[in-house]
Amino acid sequence: MRHIISLLMENEAGALSRVAGLFSARGYNIESLVVAPTEDPTLSRMTIVTSGSDAVIEQINKQLNKLIDVAAVMDLNEGEHLERELMLVKVRAEGVARDELKHIADTFQGRIIDVSDRTLTIELTDTCARLDGFLQAIGRDLILETVRSGASGIGRGERILKL
Amino acid sequence: MELTGAEIAIRCLQEEGVEYIFGYPGGAVLHIYDALFQQDRVKHILVRHEQAAVHAADGYARSSEKVGVALVTSGPGITNAVTGIATAYMDSIPLVIISGQVPSYAIGEDAFQEVDAVGITRPCVKHNFLIKHVKDIGPTIKKAFYLAKSGRPGPVLVDIPKDISNQKTEFVYPDSVSIRSYNPVGKGDIEQIRRAAQLLLEAKRPMIYSGGGVVLSGASAQLTELVRLLGFPCTNTLMGLGGYPATDKQFLGMPGMHGTYEACMAMQYCDVLIAIGARFDDRVVGNVEHFAQVPRKIIHLDIDPSSIAKRVKVDVPVVGELKPVLEQLLGELRNSNKKPDPATLAAWWKQVNEWRVKGGGLRYKNSTEIIKPQFVIEKLYEITGGDAFVTSDVGQHQMWAAQYYKFNKPRRWINSGGLGTMGFGLPAAMGVQLINPGATVACVTGEGSIQMNIQELSTCKQFHLPIKVLSLNNRYLGMVRQWQEFFHGNRYSESYMDALPDFVKLAEAYGHIGVRIDKPSDVEPALKEAFARKNDLVFMDFQTDPTENVFPMVPGGKGLSEVILSEDL
């Protein structure tokens, strides 16, 4: 099953490679991994999207907790949570297709952030599944470039990951 | 007063009460070696290969309750040390490894003897550090010692660039250390411990299975009390030998691939299994699906949550330091008005004793013609009164030593259980001998393993380490040969050791005493004579039966109850 795991870790050189190394060394999947500093510059927040059996997910959580630089781990799937991913898509937009693409972008609440004679660049922020839906709606033939940030996640309401 | 980074590093070791360190100098650690030269509190043991430095520090730590320290240079110094570090990591041994690094301004430029030490050791250390500023050396070494010995112990590397070891700063060694992202658990959750006590008291076929964690956490006394209080059978894993006295009647021997029949069967058919500082290793429970076919409740006490429910499902997990957790459990059991039902327990013991008879004990067919390796270990046990420190290398001799030397005390059996590192035994014995001066130290090895670190005979000479080396020389990589005999149609691919050196001459060349023993009748006199030489290293080259196999055996991928007993008895 797909899980989103959030963690807080010391903002130190090498911390990212400890997490990435753990996943490769133990053969766990990484679908995406996002990391950036938080409001506290000594801490980074990482969101990992992974998949595996319940036993594997339990081990991933425990192994992450065991890393010395990791201060807190939360498996967002254990409660209600939100996830968002940013995507930039450059599409071939000529003739009739141009209006059609603008229409699809509107439907998915995408913003057109760059325009040229023959291309459009669309920005979307949504769940990973909705972004997949958008790409499908456009079709691979017209897509020139796709840039996805990987998912970021946060618990709902009072579900807070903080030190 | 301002000190250089190198002086600070050595002062830190003094502050930690380090008596011996093991190392090998080189360009990037010259400042540190210079600082070492100008003091006499920390004594340096010059090994002949960096792998041996780490194994020696490891043996030092395993046979005491101290943190072992190794000092190596950059590049090949640290890459040579990696096998030692991984060995310690797999067996959770507290070590601090200080490595030199090329000057900080040269890092990343493929400088001479540069290697990414932090990167190359990352998967086999508990944690590691690259020093960026001279003021960080003191606090980082403090953290390194704290991390190495607290929680689940392990090796910690501190990599110090050469220029930083020569910069100056004020030296203040921190009194305490706290790491906000690292908070090892002490006591266990009392509700879970109550549930554990309840399960134990209601068990019909209980079994106590303890591992290296008991030895490392110094909880042998608590384990022993628990076993005696409950009256249950007990097994110790390869890493846990000595945790419970092996000559006690409640002890069933070692479980697993080369464990006793009764320990394997009791593990398989118990209805409540309490695992204490053990991790259900593949060499212990064999095929986990097969193991799971028999319903049983499992209680697991361990300092490391990731060891719990990793390979088997656990009903009552208890995370914590074993000593306080076992005290808590003992308290609950003593306060309970329930006791294990004597009749039920007697029926279980009857079954266990039937397995003991069926298994026939550890046995081999002795010979007057050819030396049986098991016979050598039996005699070693007798002659040393069961009280020696025994290190081993890896292979058949390791299993025979584990089976036939009955360890009654913890920290006496020193072997590479997790990583299975050939070449571990002799350097580990050096560390053991240094921290236990005057003690009897035996290194049980084979002609294959000993050649992986034989250069350390030179270190033993320089530092007067009177280790007794028992090489069970069967002219084969015995365990490889055994698997080839059983599973590869007797095709002994590359397992024959041809062109062996004359080990007697070799020992003599290093300035030691070498003895070759060919006949069974010479085994005992040779051992007696060797152990009588309190101040000499004696290398005993026992010419043993090349066809001997280790039994019992649970073949790889098989279940515990599929154990094969000796075929020729």
Automatic annotation (TrEMBL), chain A:
Catalytic reaction(s) noted: 2 pyruvate + H(+) = (2S)-2-acetolactate + CO2
Entry-linked Pfam families: ACT_AHAS_ss, ALS_ss_C
Isomerase recorded as keyword: no
Group of enzyme by EC: transferase
Pathway field: Amino-acid biosynthesis; L-valine biosynthesis; L-valine from pyruvate: step 1/4; Amino-acid biosynthesis; L-isoleucine biosynthesis; L-isoleucine from 2-oxobutanoate: step 1/4
GO biological processes: isoleucine biosynthetic process; L-valine biosynthetic process
CDD domains tied to this protein: ACT_AHAS
ACT domain segment(s): 4-78
GO molecular function, one term: acetolactate synthase regulator activity
Keywords: Amino-acid biosynthesis, Branched-chain amino acid biosynthesis, Transferase
Its EC number(s): 2.2.1.6
GO CC terms of this entry: cytosol
Keyword Nucleus (UniProt): no
Similarity annotation: Belongs to the acetolactate synthase small subunit family.
Function: Catalyzes the conversion of 2 pyruvate molecules into acetolactate in the first common step of the biosynthetic pathway of the branched-amino acids such as leucine, isoleucine, and valine.
Assembly and binders: Dimer of large and small chains.
NCBIfam families on file: acolac_sm, PRK11895.1
PANTHER family: ACETOLACTATE SYNTHASE SMALL SUBUNIT (PTHR30239), ACETOLACTATE SYNTHASE SMALL SUBUNIT 1, CHLOROPLASTIC (PTHR30239:SF0)
Name recorded for this polypeptide: Acetolactate synthase small subunit
Automatic annotation (TrEMBL), chain B:
Cofactor note: Binds 1 Mg(2+) ion per subunit. Binds 1 thiamine pyrophosphate per subunit.
Cofactor: Mg(2+); thiamine diphosphate
Domain Thiamine pyrophosphate enzyme N-terminal TPP-binding: 4-119
Protein name: Acetolactate synthase
InterPro entries attached to this UniProt entry: Acetolactate_synth_lsu (IPR012846), AHAS_TPP (IPR039368), DHS-like_NAD/FAD-binding_dom (IPR029035), THDP-binding (IPR029061), Thiamin_PyroP_enz_cen_dom (IPR012000), Thiamin_PyroP_enz_TPP-bd_dom (IPR012001), TPP_enz (IPR045229), TPP_enzyme_TPP-bd (IPR011766)
A GO BP entry: isoleucine biosynthetic process
Keyword Flavoprotein: yes
Organism: Candidatus Gallionella acididurans
One Gene Ontology molecular-function label: magnesium ion binding
Keyword Flavoprotein: yes
Annotated SUPFAM superfamilies: DHS-like NAD/FAD-binding domain (SSF52467), Thiamin diphosphate-binding fold (THDP-binding) (SSF52518)
